[in-house]
């Protein structure tokens, strides 16, 4: 039986869904994977920090945060700096779920570096850390004999990186094509139903899918950083979102959407990347797709990626109806795999 | 560096594609996976058997069989019984690629049992062995400390079993839905283009997709044994193809196909299975699907399976344009994984 102390950096929808999932799977983790866990630290943006070497009362932590109260109730931890938290939390695994920084990946990179330096496994849902420091963090993890996993960075909890790591040995990825941004896919779908772009954006903001500034989604930045993440890791070719040829969906008018619908087609924000020797051509742009394409049926916040490799001509992964629980599952899978792969 | 001696039982299109793939990936296996291999035995139905403890000349074996000659040229091995071959071949891994026996899974089960008894890893593309002896063979493999892998039994080389084994820990499969039989999917597609059922069957026979007796495909037996294989392994609920509620495609007339096409729909032979406590409801039957379904765009010999689990609401795997090389890759992946998982 392995004993794992978990530290959660981020306790929003995903972090709280992870804690619930951990509770639900607690017996299975013990019986099937011989993993016993405690949560020894939780760091939040708005509800303070909590640390306890013997394990926090996570039910109480959930209740406090969900009723808008501070974690100070369950642990009188004085610090408010996230990096100090990683430096001092007594843990074996850091789960890093802070917001993405497109420009330089900080402070996520420092969080993960510090965790690995302290001999923790480093698990993150943060794409910024991958596109700006994949090689450094991977090398550090290897040197420390710890795992650096990040399944939830792309397509929520759908297994993409673990698929290539474990289920597709001796395979070279040559190209990929997919729909990777939920918000724009939902916006385009609602425009097909006659809604204006502005109202569709508002709807996505209301349900918590889009931020107050929706440009990260509608200008293709989120899709671009996902392409960059996939290319960096799966093709082994470092790529930043800034290097992706990027066009968002602002140019797609209701008239274009209606015309496409009449012709039985759909506008989709399509991501592509193609290896060309040691370089890669990558693009995010709206495309018209027809029913004969696997991209056509990908509705709402669902996503798809089609891989072309040197061993399987075409392999696609489709994730339907994701939510915070799905992202949380990717983190749980990373945690279990970090323990059993170590 | 691990030294692996491979024995191939079956040297048709898939077996020969595997040998070519092994040659192509030889350097990568050494460098990345520290696997050195020799092929010490090949058993064929029509071209004799060959065994050599120091490794056969596989280029020559390919040339001989592809020019219709006997393997007797490269190894004067007197036996012609496949079980004797498994009993006597000096090997660490058996690759079992014999034809499927729907009724009782033999002789594949005996081949795999004997291989495991002799401390070999047992790898097969044979669904019959799974639906009739999954538990026994798994337990034997575990007792012997060897691996029993069978990725190529369903959806050619697409990672399905390895996905659940390694990339989806702590996940319960609740239901599945898919298109798993290439021949009927291609037949229905050709009927959409105006071909008769009979001519479409003939075409599938010409390209080597359907057998002389096409009933295994058109009556839904192949789809049923694939459903039974998935349920047996991934749900842990033993199921035989005989227990699957099965309807083939013979009742689908050209008129029905044309009418569906006019309405923008398609007939597909759809496989479903749903867990119901400790039992399962499973079915193979033609269904009308619309463009909003991910099954709609699955054309020709491609296939899809959509999984519903307790952790990911919906995860689909789509394999496009499979062929003997794809099935061969599934066997290669099993071989690599057997060595690195042991």
> What's the level 1 CATH class of the largest domain in chain A?
Alpha Beta
Radius of gyration of chain A: 20 Å
Span of the ends, CA to CA of chain A? 14 Å
What is the molecular shape of chain A? globular
- Strands side by side in the biggest sheet of chain A: 3-2-1-4-5-6
Low-confidence parts of chain A, pLDDT < 50 over ≥5 residues? none
CATH architecture of the largest domain in chain A: 3-Layer(aba) Sandwich
Estimated share of beta-strand residues of chain A: 15-25%
CATH fold label of the largest domain in chain A: Rossmann fold
Question: Of all protein chain pairs, which has the greatest interface, and how many residues does each chain bring to it?
Answer: A-B, 50 and 50 residues
User: How many separate structural domains of chain A?
Assistant: 2
Structural class computed from helices and strand pairing of chain A: alpha/beta
**DSSP strand count of chain A:** 12
- Output the helix-strand order of chain A: EHHEEHHEHEHEHEHHHHEHEEEEH
Percent helix of chain A:
40-55%
* Quaternary organization: homodimer
Largest sheet of chain A: 6 strands, mixed
């Amino acid at each position: 039986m392995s004993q794992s102390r978990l530290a959660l950096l981020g306790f929003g929808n995903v972090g709280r869904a992870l804690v619930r999932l951990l509770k639900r799977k607690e017996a299975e983790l013990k019986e099937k994977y011989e993993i016993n866990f405690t949560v020894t630290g939780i760091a939040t943006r708005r509800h303070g920090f909590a640390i306890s070497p013997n394990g926090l009362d996570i039910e109480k932590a959930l209740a406090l945060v969900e009723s808008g109260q501070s974690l100070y109730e369950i642990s009188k931890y004085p610090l408010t700096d996230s990096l100090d938290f990683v430096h001092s939390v007594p843990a074996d695994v850091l789960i890093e779920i802070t917001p993405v920084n497109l420009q330089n990946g900080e402070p996520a990179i420092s969080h993960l570096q510090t965790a690995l330096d302290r001999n923790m496994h480093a698990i993150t849902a943060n794409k910024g850390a991958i596109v700006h420091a994949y090689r450094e963090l991977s090398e550090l993890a290897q040197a420390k004999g710890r795992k650096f996993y990040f399944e939830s960075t792309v397509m929520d909890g759908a297994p993409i990186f673990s698929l290539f790591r474990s289920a597709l040995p001796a395979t070279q990825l040559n190209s990929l094509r997919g729909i990777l941004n939920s918000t724009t896919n939902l916006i385009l779908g609602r425009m097909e139903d006659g809604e204006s772009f502005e109202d569709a954006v508002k709807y996505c903001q209301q349900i918590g899918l889009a931020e107050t500034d929706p440009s990260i989604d509608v200008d293709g930045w989120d899709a671009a950083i996902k392409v960059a993440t996939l290319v960096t890791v799966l093709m082994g070719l470092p790529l930043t979102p800034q290097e992706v040829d990027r066009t968002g969906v602002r140019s797609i008018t209701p008239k274009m959407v209606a015309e496409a619908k009449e012709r039985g087609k759909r506008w989709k924000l399509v991501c592509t990347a193609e290896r060309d020797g040691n370089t890669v051509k990558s693009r995010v742009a709206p495309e018209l797709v027809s029913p004969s394409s696997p991209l056509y049926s990908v509705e709402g916040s669902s996503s798809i990626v089609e891989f072309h490799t040197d061993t399987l001509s075409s392999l696609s992964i489709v994730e339907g109806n994701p939510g915070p629980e799905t992202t949380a599952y990717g983190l749980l899978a990373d945690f279990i795999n970090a323990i059993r792969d170590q």
